[in-house]
Amino acid sequence: MPRVEPSKPQFDYLVAEDQFPAMVAGFGAGKTEAAVLRSIFGKLKYPGLNRGFYCPTYDLVRMIAFPRFEEALTKLGIQYRLYKSPLNYLEIPGYGKIFFRSMDTPSRIIGYEHADADVDELDTLKADDAAEVWRRILSRNRQKKPDGKPNTVGTTTTPEGFRFVYRTWRQHPQPGYRIIQAPTHSNPHLPDGYIESLRDIYPEQQLRAYLRGEFVNLASGTVYHTFSREMNHTDAVEKRGEHLHVGMDFNIENMSAVVHVIRDGLPLAVGELTGVLDTPAMIDLIKERYADHKISVYPDASGGSRKTVDASTNDLALLKKAGFKVVADKSNPAVRDRILSMCGMFCNANGDRRYLVNTTRCPEYTTGLEQMAYNRHGAPDKTKGTDHVTDAGGYFITKMFPVVKPKKPQMKRVVGLV
């Protein structure tokens, strides 16, 4: 078998004999590779017994888990047969099966059993959902081992605030629960500039989690905590004929839009439209106020099916019919991604403030950015009415200035054990 070279956290996780080890890692620390190799080596150790491998969604099983297992097994010189949907298992001849399952529908974690399991990115689930998934995985983990050792479940995840992994492994750990911390810099195979590029796009609070692998509060205080009325202010206004970029949120009798220009490659919010009755009224207002401008609209993607005025024409179709360029995906980005994009643009870990707002011309947008808070469930509080205009700005920012993690290198050598 080829020699494999782990980082120290990877090695500690691969050889951990604890019943429930958790590798809590920063971006690029090699947690998924460690999970794949722990699964393979564990499978070889117990021929004839099954193993489970869990990802947050089936798309991640298909796009991440399947290719990673195929690559690792090929480099290790291990023969295998992979059965994709609907069977979703990998068989190593003479050694048994590895079942692949998603965690987005816990009720489907039934009808099979294994001796050990590996769970990737458990903390991306809401705490209650993660707890339910964990209970169901443990209930599947019941094949008896010939050496009498306990059934194990390993977890690899990026910390997402004080969620299930924090509560279970750090706050109230039971015997057998062990945390192995893996900061990004522990991976010697990262390309030059990877860590610096993360600093460019993430605010400091997120970097403590995503770079150092620390548990930090990502859902307290104000949502847009990096925004400053003073330091993110600009006196800029649109110039005659300038291309305008309008983020838009659809709500019957309370539509909102934030008007931007892009100068030197960076966005400036120069106006807002709030409390508008419906989409036709918004179109008329934009045409009246910005008659001499090219207009691109970045709307709430749900407008493809929503009608704010009647049942005959959806909102996106109305915008296109008005002559506006509509820039929208089939679905909205995750709320978490939109918040990260906004916070990173308002101020990244290097102190760069790349998104400025004319707070005089955008008073409600400014108030929303200052006051939007999290509710007790850790989600943005939508009961105060400040979310419509901030959502509008966020659709534009997330589309044009998304948080895109730098690509990690392909696995040039299998990291792990000899």
- The coarse silhouette is elongated
Strand order of the largest sheet: 3-4-5-2-6-7-1-8
Secondary structure class reads alpha/beta
Alpha carbon gyration radius: 25 Å
The average pLDDT value, as a whole number, equals: 90
Looking at the structure, the CATH topology of the largest domain is Rossmann fold
| Number of distinct beta strands | 14
Low-pLDDT windows of residues: 411-418
Beta-strand content estimate: 15-25%
Distance between the termini: 8 Å
Contiguous helical run count: 12
Number of domains: 2
Largest sheet: 8 strands, mixed
Helix content: 25-40%
Protein name: Terminase
Pfam families: Terminase_6C, Terminase_6N
Domain Terminase large subunit gp17-like C-terminal: 246-398
Keywords: Viral release from host cell
Please characterize this protein's 3D structure.
It comes from Halomonas alimentaria. InterPro entries: P-loop_NTPase, Terminase_6C. It holds the Pfam family Terminase_6C. The chain is an alpha/beta fold and 418 residues long. The chain has two domains: 8-210, P-loop containing nucleotide triphosphate hydrolases (Rossmann fold, 3-Layer(aba) Sandwich), CATH 3.40.50; 244-400, Nucleotidyltransferase, domain 5, CATH 3.30.420.280. 32% of the residues lie in helices and 18% in strands. It is built from twelve helices and 14 strands. The chain has helices spanning 8-15, 31-45, 58-76, 127-140, 164-171, 194-201, 204-210, 279-289, 315-321, 335-346, 363-371, 387-400; strands at residues 20-25, 51-55, 81-83, 89-92, 96-102, 116-120, 152-157, 177-182, 244-249, 255-263, 266-276, 295-299, 325-326, 356-357. Helix 4 (127-140) links the parallel strand 6 and strand 7 (152-157). The longest helix has 19 residues, at 58-76. 44% of the residues are buried.
